[in-house]
Input
Amino acid sequence: MNRSHRHSIASAALVLLLGCSPAIAGLTRKHKVSPTPAPPATPHASSQLEDKKLNERVDALLAQMTLPEKIGQLSQFTAGSTITGPTGQKLDFDAMLPKGEIGSLFNVTGAKETNHYQHIAVEQSRLHIPLLFGLDVIHGHRTTFPVPLAMAASFDPDIVQQACRVAGTEARQDGINWVFSPMVDISRDARWGRIVESAGEDPYLGSAIARAYIRGYQQGDLSKSDSVAASVKHFAAYGAAEAGRDYNTTDMSEIRLRQVYLPPYKAAVDEGAATVMSAFNALNGVPETANPFTLTKILRKEWGFDGMVVSDYGAVGELMKHGIAGDGATAAQKALTAGVDMDMESNLYHSRLAGLVESGKVPMSVVDEAVRRVLRVKFAMGLFEHPYTDENLPPYQPTPEKRGLAKKAAEESFVLLKNEAVPGTGRLLPLASDLKSVALIGPLADDAEDMIGSWGAQGDAANTKTLRGALADKLGTKLTYVKGTDILSTDSSGFAAAVAAAKNADLVILALGEAGSMTGEASSRAHLTLPGNQQQLMQAVTAAGKPVVLVLFDGRPTAIPWAATHVPAILEAWFPGVEAGTALVSVLTGEVNPAGKLPVEFPYSVGQEPLYLAQLPTGRPAGDADLSHPPTNSEEKYLSRYIDAPNAPVYPFGWGLSYAQFTYSNVKIEHTGGTSKDVGEITVGVDVKNISSVPGVEVAQLYLHNTVASVSQPVRELKGFHRIFLQPGESQHVEFKLHFDDLAFYNVDVQRVVEPGTFDVYVGGSSKADKAGSFSVLE
Ligand code: BGC
Output
């Protein structure tokens, strides 16, 4: 089918170099760095779904199917205890399967357990159609990796891909052939609990990470015995739920939808994602479970998606609560005709579709198309040939290789937010080797359960090393641990012991933050401060006068303006997974140099939300329109700003320090090639140098600002990044390549265009990068 690449609306364009910052002296060793994100892998799973022979098999099978058997393929039920919504139905799967009434089960894990159902489906049903077994494998299956938001902070699609490979292999050994991941919803509101499952606020980073997930799970070949089908969710724009409240409505212009929210889904579909999950929310009044605009017009027709769409949990039934269907039959009719092929858990396709087809309300052709989409995935996965899972595999072992990867992923995900010199002590991190005593204080210091974060799949807290455990291994009797308080407690009776421990120590490490269960589905928060009385604990301990390092655990940006001012060193740890403690110790001690960058902005206060870098300009900007400087005239009232809080975040997008120091020099902007009909290629080259005495990784970032266009464009947008390793004194030449897609936007006719105009370029180690120069696109 057609995969559209509609780039041809570009206005006749000629790119000219306008100017760039003066070259700064510096010896450089020039070598090219391969661009991240990597180009899509080939062959694609999508080409497997398009395969002629495969589709002939699908049609041949379809021709033999009765209506109840077809409806069976479109029906999915939860068969396990992990539920994420109301269930209430007690179905007898052993009796339904021989009749071909089920296409997929989810939440059942284990080779033996899944084989039980698969044997019935394959051996006792008339057409022997195998089942898909789905599960929320979100950040690892048995080996728990950092939560997805943390993985995105690595700015390292490769490690995301590797983690998904491990997760996919483990899931497959447990009988799971379909993972409900990746969640690629752009998330710009820290109140939304599901921000933890996302790659954050930015469509460019989000798209790179989305592609990596698909490559890791599907390996470009669904038929491999250790590939799992991915489910890109939640289509679409679930992350823009109003007020950050889960399941809430979403309302936005088509321009914003296409420019900001759709790109990561599109990237995943282009990478060959086999399935897509529709979202719970309504978009502009139409619930996504019954939205032909997104599911049919965009996904199927514009993007040429040949895989299948599954509803979210019970969402077909929820169309009645949304108020767009008066009864279950209408809900089923609306969902199926809009493009939801499989009904997850609402039981309405199973119970109502036959009647709808018989009464002529749903044409058989619509049912057939949905069944085709389900069968295509099953054939492409080779399930007809290999439906079962080997039950004799050795039990799961958290091998050193897997744990090593989980540790590396966690180390890459940590973001050093602050590391200031303390008088008489110098920078607190990495920890000085001659410390005689360290006090570790806080409710997250020795909490294995919460290191897993939300959606733990089959992850086991018993395998998890805490910060206390790992620090004790390193420091032995030099370490004192005091909990101080509980995550949500208001009881301050433990403060005195914490303050006493702080007074007796050379240095204090505070381990504070959220519980893992405070993020994820149905975990929106109206407050973004540290929960319980942890803020008071932090202030009491800091007042003891000893140098303090804050290690922050959370699944969203926490509002920490006080800590940002009063605590000299802050390490954002997220929920790091099974190797939490060991990874933290290697970064705290400097064995590993932190390099993570924020994929979301950290607010000063909840009132700033939704908060994100790529804001549109206003007519009354407070400060420079491009965010280079804060407001210049504090007397001026009539500006776009708060009277009681800054506009700026406490820590901006892309922010993250290192124990090394990097300089950027010799920026060159070149237009290489291109025609009058197309933008061609713009190359932004820069030399990045490690001027410190320790090796380190830097994530070099490029931002653009389209200064004048027919539709206002964001003040800064990420358009490229490179993760580079530099030895002390080493310099690398980094090149960013910009093409049509990087310059294009949607105009008022919702056409993707590049207009003549000037683009400012910013290159550096965060979104606060200095302007490096600009280039123009002429008529
Ligand atoms: C969530 C999905 C998840 C599904 C199945 C829903 O409540 O929104 O993300 O995949 O449950 O567990």
Remarks:
- Residues 34 and 740 are 19 Å apart (CA to CA).
